[in-house]
């Protein structure tokens, strides 16, 4: 505790010089929290822990470059004073970039495995609520326009790697083949017309002119629930060489009460297998590589389909995801050979 | 201001229920800062801005899962109460993942363009100070071991894309060619023996067994300053088909007072061109794609070499970088043809 007090005494003048008003809380057994308040609405928290951790948080409104220089100068002083106090014997010094909150542009879109990542977003291109979800298209300096559905980064203009992976990584010859794509509202079919409207205007690098006309020489886009369509195809006996499942709803839950999500996923898989030719292939995205429990649960579903299947998986770096992503190839087990 | 007061009155009970001690600061024209202190050393800041922004920061020591659930419950209550107060008319609600500070493992390694990104680090594999720099090798769940030199992410085991890019993206045939690699301490030559020691033990997926013996059938690793070596080669008239510059020191400064860095870089480039065959190629990494000023300055240096050169560039996604990276190919301008 004498150390805590020494740190407090050493750092106090730095904040007081700034014309800040001080409020000290002393826990005795948990160190100090000192709050410094400036007249312009900004403030600082100085948290001194007894075991040697000192945290300084600064919060201000209307950040400008002048403000950043002031912050750097203040933190330089804190660092110098601490090094003097402990004769340079400091284990680690770390400054984190400022977190920008409350502005028009939100730069923080956590990864699927829950890590905080800041994107270089500089423009809100599209932001609408559809009956199904919130649809954002944000511009990233490096990734181009990014489609974000209810907070999940779906696809950016930089993400050709995603499209290549979900099409079989260049190993397939699609010439003359029948292909069924589920989902893919960023350039394919989707139940949410508003996703298509946003993408056809702002994600042309990914979807080209495919969404301008829902029917072309060799393709047709259906904007409806895929379940009845799959059931109809199955009943009609219509078969495909490839089924590509790019539906946005990925179950990442591993809790048993969300069984219905897994059942829904199995329903889609079963119906897809029914319309897939015996030597056909089913491609889909899985999840981020770190959600191993969710990936295992997904693979368990594959052993519970109406017909036996085999699968392979591939890990792909999709630029705008900031995490590695697992893609699956699934095919019907060849029997009696 | 009446809104500020209404928010304060609505949220107060939530924190008071937690047995927290309240300190209110009222700026009049800048809203409120309310500090809530718990007996166990944790605390909360509630910052209410007059224009409608409400920020809640919670800070605690020794975070456990129980603590996280409590935090979620508290934030759920804040969100509910705010929605009640404004009859659901709230523009945006955002929760950011917790920032973990002061632990053994540091998960925050900002990008070259200064963005805050959290890595999935779960182990400190190596952490030493050499006479030249701090050398860390940290284990990432998805990227494998990552080499971090003085805070800069250099290379991870996942980053084959980096090595491919700096070798010409698979378009070169190295059979029987003379190759000079500058830098590349993660698997090549470097002045810092300690980088080699760390990498040869912990980065074997990138360097293989190349660093176990500094001399092999077709290669030799020199651990010394590359300038005198380049000068000697130039004097001896030794020429290479390829020069690969993978030196860690990338000048990202754009301030004029750091001219000497650019001069050093030009010296290396000039010497490299002297030992490069007339039809040879020089590969190097540039910078992250967002640091456009630094990239432009680099390209300007290329027009100031002793011989005229041409260049092309390629943008590559290196998984562990979390930002796109620019690589250069430079060659001597063919004259008189």
Automatic annotation (TrEMBL), chains A, B:
Residues 107-332 form the PABS domain. Keywords: Polyamine biosynthesis, Transferase. The keyword Transferase applies. Coiled coil: none annotated. One of its GO terms (molecular function) is spermine synthase activity. Pfam families: Spermine_synt_N, Spermine_synth, SpmSyn_N. One of its GO terms (biological process) is spermine biosynthetic process. The active site is at 246 (proton acceptor). Belongs to the spermidine/spermine synthase family. This is Spermine synthase. It comes from Ficedula albicollis. The gene is SMS.
